[in-house]
């Protein structure tokens, strides 16, 4: 027998699981089971997938133990049958064959038996017998907490967390959600005569296990199954509260028993003999908690009015652990504006008299109406008293915090309850599963997992005890602004880890996500969007796609001379999306950083399960799809790194000189944009001194496709497209070598076609305007205006050289605190050769040479590097 870690806290913990009926059983939503699913479905019938017939919840509470009390509660759920049901449930959830899982499940469930260190079915401790520190006020009633588990969870999967709250002096009701989000549950129908049906097995539901009729409208929901499961959970939480409320108030109409039929001490759960008050406070200060989809459930309940047949929950605080927000309608959720106290027509367990079928729209419409009423939050309406918003603590895993879009939405959501934005805490090195028992199971647990869990428990208890600030002072914390360039990709390798291209593909993945982020920010919300060609580099073209669920997919395709068809690329993306969806539909699939590669720290899916092998096989099939493209339709990126010393950087000026960029380019230096070009033929000089740094600097040139840019310009300047016989008509609108458009070169060129130089200097000759004038008697006059880049004191040495290189004239011009000088020289007829048109004489070319010296005669040299 193996025990989970001992429970820290003042009190021993008791565990009792209660069940209560729903009369009559009713379906929630319109989703139905397929006959091929692993759930109990009569052959040939299409049954509701979500049938509300019995609600189960496990109570964790301060226990009144005696010498006869035995410690140890089964962690694996085995209410009626052998552990086979748990095995089937985990197999359905993980998507693995049972033969892989059975050694682990049977080892921990049957042979050594994993136990929760708590006492089953023992009496509830009377509050007056509770331990108190000196100066503490006596406890009249135990506070109540209701907890909702996440996908793949159960009423015992968070036993450590629930036990820690119970050991601190609380009664925790962990709901067993029987909506197909848990690994396994076995509900029964309670007949009017008191008999019960045989339990039916419900294992984790996948999309392949369910269907909707053609007449059902589910298109408005991004996660239709999750939306209906969320509606189901609303009913379970309210019924849990209502039935427990009746139990502790000794309501004679309550129908409740333990799940295994064993007796429990009803007297200890009743009223105080001396005061007539219940021992658990259900009427005020209730706490709602949940993890993952359970956190989503908490936020949904806090932002909606209860269905008409239920009492409102008197929630005072909420603990939300790593919430998953995507099933909730956006924008929102937001707090309910006002309490609807008129809804008091509560019947037994909130079920009798209700509609036989409950639509998910009831929950969704309530969320939307809450959003519409948000403007009146906090203001009274009529005679209804306004309920203050519950205080909220959100504890996030690091993996969910670096999920950029999701975390940004979480921050906006939490502002509705905590405007000061101090209630989101992220635990470094934690994972999504860190809040459950899984990381601290015997044999497999680690010190890190224990440390993270203890932090989660300590923060939660201190929040409920209203001493969170004190706890944070004792916990090592840091205020962190998270800035993420793109989302961390899941890198699906179709090459070996030793492949020399590993660095390149790692770079491609992250760069592509940056581009997708920029386009999404520029265009607003993108959904199910083919982004086309993102850019090209070396021998690959990179394409992007955003799925309806905001999954970003990048394909890096090998270059070829064939023309790519968008429809082929889109088909490849669709196939990748389906393969990805099948593999990642399990939220607990292990995503870790590569530990054996220093160059690749992006998350990737670890090889292991048969499902992974099928996924990998499908990726390989897609990667062999012949999708190619025309070079001229591509975007290209050129990157260069260069070093500059501190003495060079100390020069007053530093310029990057681009002698020729072909054609539409955006240039960035060390991440800052410095230049945009639209003309192949002109040079550009950019002052970059403020952006340079001593050491290594990075220059990036991104070239857009000339075809694309030209056609966009043509739409504006010439809406009526011209019919040219020799090439694309958009060429008329582009300052680029026209032979690129098809009558000469085959390929459309792109890139830097002349040198790029970094120049550092004090001052330089910026411009010379030289002119020659010949009189009628063939005398010649030469003049030159010399312009400097800045005011300067020194001299300019001017030389005029013949075509043979001989100096025919020279002069030294003095410059004093000036930005220029003027040179003039007269030549008598016959002193120099004149230039004649072809056929009339020679064409001799004279050259002018200018040299700049400082005041002491030192040559003003120009330091240049990065010549490419």
TrEMBL record:
Belongs to the TRAPP small subunits family. Sedlin subfamily. Pfam families: Glyco_hydro_2, Glyco_hydro_2_N2, PAF-AH_p_II, Sedlin_N. Keywords: Glycosidase, Hydrolase, Lipid degradation, Lipid metabolism. Transmembrane segments: none annotated. InterPro entries: AB_hydrolase_fold, Beta-gal/glucu_dom_sf, Beta-mannosidase-like_N2, Galactose-bd-like_sf, Ig-like_fold, Ig-like_GH2, Longin-like_dom_sf, Sedlin. SUPFAM superfamilies: alpha/beta-Hydrolases, beta-Galactosidase/glucuronidase domain, Galactose-binding domain-like, SNARE-like. This is Trafficking protein particle complex subunit 2-like protein. GO terms for molecular function: 1-alkyl-2-acetylglycerophosphocholine esterase activity; hydrolase activity, hydrolyzing O-glycosyl compounds. GO terms for cellular component: cytoplasm. Residues 630-754 form the Beta-mannosidase-like galactose-binding domain. One of its GO terms (biological process) is lipid catabolic process. It is an enzyme of class 3 (hydrolase). The keyword Lipid metabolism applies. Residues 763-858 form the Glycoside hydrolase family 2 immunoglobulin-like beta-sandwich domain. Its EC number is 3.1.1.47. It comes from Candolleomyces eurysporus. Gene3D superfamilies: 3.30.450.70, alpha/beta hydrolase, Galactose-binding domain-like, Immunoglobulins.
């Amino acid at each position: 027998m193996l025990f989970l870690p001992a429970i820290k806290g003042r009190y021993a913990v008791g565990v009792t699981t209660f069940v209560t009926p729903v009369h009559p059983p009713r379906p929630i939503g319109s989703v139905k089971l397929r006959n091929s699913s692993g759930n109990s479905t009569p052959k040939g019938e299409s049954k509701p997938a979500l049938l509300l017939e019995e609600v189960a919840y496990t109570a964790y509470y301060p226990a009144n133990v005696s010498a006869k009390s035995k410690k140890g509660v089964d962690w694996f759920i085995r209410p009626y049958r052998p552990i086979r049901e748990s095995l089937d449930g985990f197999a359905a959830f993980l998507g693995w064959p049972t033969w892989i899982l059975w050694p682990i499940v049977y080892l921990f469930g049957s042979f050594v038996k994993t136990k929760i260190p708590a006492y089953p079915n023992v009496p509830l401790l009377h509050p007056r017998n509770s331990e108190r520190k000196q100066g503490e006020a006596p406890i009249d009633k135990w506070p109540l907490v209701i907890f909702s588990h996440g996908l793949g969870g159960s009423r015992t999967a968070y036993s450590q967390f629930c036990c820690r709250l119970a050991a601190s002096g609380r009664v925790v009701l962990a709901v067993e959600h029987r909506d197909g989000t848990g690994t396994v549950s076995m509900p029964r129908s309670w007949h009017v005569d008191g008999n019960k049906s045989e339990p039916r097995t419900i294992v984790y539901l996948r999309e392949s296990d369910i269907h909707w009729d053609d007449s059902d409208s589910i298109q408005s929901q991004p996660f239709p199954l999750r939306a209906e499961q969320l509606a189901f959970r609303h009913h379970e939480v309210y019924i849990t509260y209502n039935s427990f409320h009746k139990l502790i108030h000794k309501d004679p109409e309550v129908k409740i028993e333990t799940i295994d039929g064993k007796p429990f001490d009803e007297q200890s759960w009743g009223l105080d003999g001396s005061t007539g008050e219940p021992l658990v406070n259900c009427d005020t200060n209730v706490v709602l908690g949940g993890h993952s989809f359970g956190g989503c459930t908490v936020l949904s309940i806090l932002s909606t009015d209860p269905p008409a047949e239920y009492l409102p929950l008197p929630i005072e605080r909420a603990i939300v652990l790593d919430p998953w927000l995507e099933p909730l309608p956006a924008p929102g959720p937001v707090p309910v504006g006002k309490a609807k106290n008129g809804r008091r027509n509560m019947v037994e367990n909130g079920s009798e008299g209700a509609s036989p079928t409950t639509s998910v729209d009831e929950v969704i419409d309530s969320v939307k109406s809450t959003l519409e009423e948000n403007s009146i939050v906090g203001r009274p309406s009529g005679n209804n008293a306004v309920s203050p918003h519950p205080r909220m603590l959100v504890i996030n895993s690091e993996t969910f915090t670096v999920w950029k879009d999701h975390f940004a939405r979480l921050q906006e959501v939490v502002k509705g309850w905590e405007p000061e934005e101090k209630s989101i805490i992220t635990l470094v090195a934690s994972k999504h599963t860190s809040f459950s028992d899984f990381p601290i199971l015997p044999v497999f647990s680690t010190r890190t997992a224990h440390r993270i869990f203890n932090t989660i428990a300590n923060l939660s208890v201190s929040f409920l005890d209203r001493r969170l600030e004190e706890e944070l002072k004792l916990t090592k914390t840091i205020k962190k602004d998270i800035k993420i360039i793109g989302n961390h990709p899941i890198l699906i390798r179709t090459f070996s880890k030793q492949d020399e291209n590993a660095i390149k593909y790692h770079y491609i993945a992250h760069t592509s996500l940056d581009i997708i982020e920029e386009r999404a920010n520029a265009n607003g919300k993108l959904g199910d969007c083919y982004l086309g060609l993102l850019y090209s580099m070396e021998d690959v073209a990179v394409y992007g796609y955003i799925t309806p669920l905001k999954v970003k997919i990048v394909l890096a395709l090998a270059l070829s001379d064939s023309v790519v068809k968008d429809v082929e690329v889109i088909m490849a993306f669709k196939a990748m999306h389906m393969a990805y969806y099948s593999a990642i539909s399990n939220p607990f699939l292990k995503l870790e950083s590569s530990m054996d590669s220093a160059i690749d720290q992006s998350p990737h899916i670890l090889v292991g399960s048969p499902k992974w092998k099928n996924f990998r096989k499908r990726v390989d099939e897609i990667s062999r799809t012949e999708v190619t493209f025309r070079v001229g339709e591509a975007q290209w990126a050129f990157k260069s790194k260069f070093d500059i010393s501190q003495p060079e950087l100390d020069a007053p000026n530093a310029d990057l000189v681009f002698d020729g960029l072909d054609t539409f380019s955006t240039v960035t230096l060390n991440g800052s944009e410095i230049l945009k070009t639209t003309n192949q033929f002109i040079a550009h000089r950019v002052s970059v001194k403020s952006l340079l740094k001593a050491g290594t600097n990075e220059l990036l040139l991104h070239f857009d496709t000339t075809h694309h840019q030209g056609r966009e310009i043509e739409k504006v300047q010439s809406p009526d497209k011209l019919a040219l016989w020799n090439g694309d008509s958009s060429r008329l609108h582009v300052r680029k070598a026209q032979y690129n458009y098809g009558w000469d070169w085959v390929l459309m060129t792109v890139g830097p076609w002349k040198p790029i130089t970094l120049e550092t200097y004090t001052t330089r000759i910026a411009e010379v305007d030289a002119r020659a004038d010949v009189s009628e008697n063939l005398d010649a006059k030469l003049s030159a205006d010399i312009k400097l880049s800045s005011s300067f004191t020194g001299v300019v040495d001017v030389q005029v050289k013949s075509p043979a290189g001989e100096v025919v004239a020279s002069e030294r011009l003095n410059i004093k605190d000036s930005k220029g000088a003027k040179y003039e020289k007269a030549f008598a007829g016959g002193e120099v050769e004149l230039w004649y048109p072809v056929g009339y004489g020679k064409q001799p070319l004279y050259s002018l040479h200018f040299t700049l010296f400082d005041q002491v005669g030192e040559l003003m040299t120009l330091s240049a590097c990065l010549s490419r």
